[in-house]
Amino acid sequence: MQIYLPIAEMSVPVESLVFLGVAVGFLSGVFGVGGGFLATPFLLFMGIPPAVAVGTQANQLIATSVTGVLGHMRRGNVDVHLGTVMLAGGFFGTIIGIFLFRMLQHFGQIDVVIAVSYVVLLGTIGSMMLFESISAIMNKSKVTEDVQSLSQREFFRNLPYKTRFLKSRLYMSALIPASIGFVGGILVSILGIGGGFIIVPAMIYILGMPTILVAGTSLFQIIFISAFSCILHAVANGTVDIILSLIMIVGGV
Q: How far apart are CA 206 and CA 209, in angstroms?
C-alpha cells in the first residue's frame, strides 16, 4: 500500500517503512544504538530527499530509544550522571550541526554531503572493525592490554574537571564524556544517526565503562539529543515529515 508523504512530496510503500521501523527498534533495544545508520541510508535508497530523511530520522530515534532505555533502567543499567554529562556536550554539538546543515542547505550541497558522508563513514567504520577483528585473532592478549589502558593514558589523566561517576566506578575529566556526546550531537543533526555505533565503542574503549551499562547509557543521551535535533530541524529547516516518522515509529516501538 502506498502513502503520500507531504514534506518529502512523494509516495512510498507503507510495508517497507514498517519493516524498517521494526529493524531499527530491534537494534536499539539490543545493542544500544539508535539505528539511524541503517534507517537513513535505507530512506535515501527509497528516494526520500536526504534533508527530509535526516530531519525525520532524528524524530524516529526518540521513540525507539525510549522503548529501549526503559528496559535498561528497570534493570539498573543506566548511568544517569555520566549520560547527563554527555548530554551537555551533545547539545552543543547539535547546535553546531544544525548550523552546518542549514549552511550546506543554503548552498545547495546538503544532499551531496549527506550521501558522501555515509559512504565515507560506514566504509571507515567497516574497515576499522575488520582490522580490529584481524588484530584480535592474531594477538588477543595485546589487544586486551591496549583496551584496558586507553582511558588511563597520560593525556586523559591530565585533563581538568575531574568527576567521579559512582555508577560506572570511573574517575575522569568530565570533558571526555562531554566530547563524545559532542560528536554524537553533530552526527544526529547532520546525518540523522544517534551515533551509537561510534559512541558505544568510545564508551567502552575510551571511557572504560562496564559493558553492562553502555547500551542503556547510550540510549539515555540519544533520547534528548534526538529530541533537541528534531525540534531544531523542524523550526529551522522544515524537514521533518511527521507521516513518515509516525509509520516508522509504529514498527520501531
A: 8
Give the residue carrying C-alpha cell 581538568.
160
Q: Which helix (H) or strand (E) holds 115?
A: helix 110-138
Residue 228 neighbours by CB distance under 10 Å: 21
In angstroms, the CA 4 to CA 7 distance is 9
Percent of residues in the chain assigned helix, strand, coil, to nearest 5: 75, 5, 20
> For residue range 163-188, what is the model confidence (pLDDT) as tens digits?
889 888 888 888 989 999 998 888 88
Task: Give ∠ CA 85-228-28 in degrees, rounded to 5.
Answer: 75
Q: Give tens-digit pLDDT for 215-228.
A: 889 888 888 988 88
Q: Taking a C-beta distance cutoff of 8 angstroms, is the pair 55, 234 a contact?
A: yes
Domain span including residue 212:
2-252
- Whether 48 and 4 have beta carbons less than 8 Å apart is answered as no
Cell triple for 134: 584481524
CA dist 107 → 48, 63, 140 (Å): 20, 32, 48
Number of domains forming the structure of the chain: 1
